[in-house]
Task: structure prediction
Amino acid sequence: MSELKTLTFREGEVPQAYEGAIPVLDRKSKTSRSTFPPVSDPACEQVLDITNAEGASSVVDQIFNWKDNVLPGGSTLAAYKGAEAQATFNRLGEGLTACRTFTGTSYAGKYRSTLAVESSPRVGDKAVRYRLESPMDDGRVRHDDHVVVQVGSAIALFTATEIDKQAAFPPDLIAKQVKRLQNAQRQ
Result:
């Protein structure tokens, strides 16, 4: 497969984001483990670890500073060796089946989240969408939309966040990114 960084979006390709505001970050280390303790439910921790591309051999992250949202979105492209992408996606499914509610600690302090599996987009080899709802101390609710797509030996992850309303990563960008991954693996 081509180098992951070359498959990310370039300036001018994301009309929903500010020009000059879609940086790409190449994770140099194979692990980016959090310094926070694991969340309260092991199945939920498994989901969060996979959504953070734990265990991938190569990872790039892209941040999207949306024109219509003060909170950024993000995508992660993760390459795996051999059949590891499929095995990882299967573990994600197991975690999503068991995870419902969990507590944890983040930079903002302690939190509680509820996970709900949603209707998945029809892209890639396999895809799943789930949402996290996390009440905030000020009474508002944080909504995180996660779409995870297996494409051959890669997994693409997309995240959007809103406060007090459902979030959704733009489906046209998901489809375009998945197509790039498919084309790169055919070469």
User: Anything to note?
Assistant: The chain has one domain: 21-186. The first strand starts at residue 24 and ends at 27.
